[in-house]
Amino acid sequence: MVHTVEQQAVDTIRVLAADMTRGANSGHPGAPMGCAPMANVLYTKHLNVNPKNPKFINRDRFVLSNGHGCALQYILLHLMGFDVTLDDLKNFRQVGSKTPGHPEATDTPGLEVTTGPLGQGISNAVGLAAAQEHLAAKYNRPNFDIFSNYTYVILGDGCLQEGVALEAISLAGHWKLGKLICLYDSNKITIDGQTNISFTEDVRKRFESCGWHTSAVADGNSDQEGIAKAIEEAKAVTDKPSLIEISTTIGYGSLIQDTSKAHGSPLSADDIKQLKEKFGFNPEEKYAVPQSVYDLYAQRTKHGEEYEGAWNTLFQKYSQEYPAEAAEIKRRFAGDLPEGWENALPRFTPSDPAVASRKASEIVLNALAAAIPDFMSGSADLSSSNLVRWKTASPFQNPSTGLGDYKGQYLFYGVREHGMFAVMNGMACYGGIIPIGSTFLNFLTYGWGAVRLSALTHLRVLYVMTHDSIGLGEDGPTHQPIETLALTRATPNLLTFRPADANEVAGTYKVALSARHRPSVLALSRQALPNLEGSSLEAVSKGAYVLQDQPNAKVIITATGSEVSLAVEAANVLNGQGVPTRVVSMPCTELYDEQPAEYKKSVFTTGTPVVSVEALGVIGWERYAHAFVGMTDGQGNNVFGASGPIQDLYKKFNITTDVVVKKAQDTVAHFAKLGYVPELGVTI
What we know:
Helices cover 41% and strands 12% of the residues. The protein has 24 helices and 20 strands.
């Protein structure tokens, strides 16, 4: 039988969720009301956290994957004593509050990841659990379990229907992540109605087939003892992640319980009145929390403080016996890089052989890996193409497989772009790890939901994307990313790099790794690129710079990536014709946009026409150029690529030296006739 105070706590969560969504006239009361028992059990009996130090390294991680039910998480954080007040609950879904409409790790103390798009949270949790296993394998020593935390998840039917979730669930089972425990809110309701209209699979069998341990609690509305027992049993299974299917009633206690109406709309005033009367609350009082409920949670809060205290004592002893490892842990979780790591960056000269920028990336990674142990790298079944596995990187695998161990820093993600990106976000959120993931640039958008959340959450994640243009050749338009960089360049807090040669690749890594709170997309070529005269590792940080120049230049040609060498060839022709030409390499438009106006004008001088060259769509280049060479038809419309050898494709789409020369000549003549050159990027 459940203790009275425990039932009172559950009912308090339910009425608070009703008050919060009614107060905001917006939100999702159903999931918090149905999940209240499992959440109460988890927070008061199992979760090891310290609200006074929310970033305590060895805390348990909790993820609310069905993030629309975030009123539940905010209530729990408030009851536990995190910096989420009753006033914050009253400000639910209001501008500038700590309690936004979906969980945002940047806004609310105690949140681990930013969830909302369904399936992302459980996928992030796989990354959190993988990070724990890796760091435990690397740093734990006999009698020193420095990394021993669990990752807990609450997820719903919607999460399990998103494809990204299955990708991550499959990886978690393969990796045998025994400290990952998921509580499945099985209420059989989504927005459209009963799940039997679209979702009739046996969820537990699916998880079992993926290598998970599963169990069930039949009465998730009131059987707190059963939920607690199921969690204990899951913790005893150390070689598999666990799913506990908990049958609940959405909107439990309301007049619209067990219907889709309870999902996404506040309860009516009359419904809330009867709800409070049913659970023994004063119907005229809002946001009420009995002292006994605060006391119940205060006990767990005290336990969390003691738990961290014991860990701090352990870590102090560990620091004495293993000072180098302890210092490295502190550095990594502070987000710092090893002192002098930049010295490992290789430099290149024009006499060095031409290499594809993907190959240059491999060279740089091999140089950096010895200096920076923080990397966890992987590829979506394209290791031999993406080249993000350095020579000494061993596979991350459960030791029982014989394929590697948890110390490994290279992850074989299989053909799972979206799952890979979401797992990387989880690793970055755990702390102490810099995730690197790779596929073809065209398939960045397969996992775009996770990439967008990297930017929104301010995570240092590196997306190493190869085969970056029509330069990949014969695979054709299905694989040629004509539009992708227009999307990445338009995304706030995301850096997009398209380096022109090996020096710029090294500079790209320097900037991307130094950007603690920004993810980066590295667009790298399949084809070999010459190392250019004037290229600069340091200048990448400016976003654009003068690569080659002539006195009193009459035209500027700016380009990125593989087309910079083409711009140089065109400039040589123009210079020979008596048209002095400046060449500007622009590896990162976002960084250029952040430079002072004085610097910008020193690169693109006022009164000088600019021609851009990029073997991608031309959308966005109107900010930096007056005329464009790119993927367009004869009428200036964007077009997809085609299948064929690279040289033939560049000719077909008029991205050649001759075309650039003609475009520059025509542009100079046009503005000479007009009598002036309009400023770049001017909008009215």
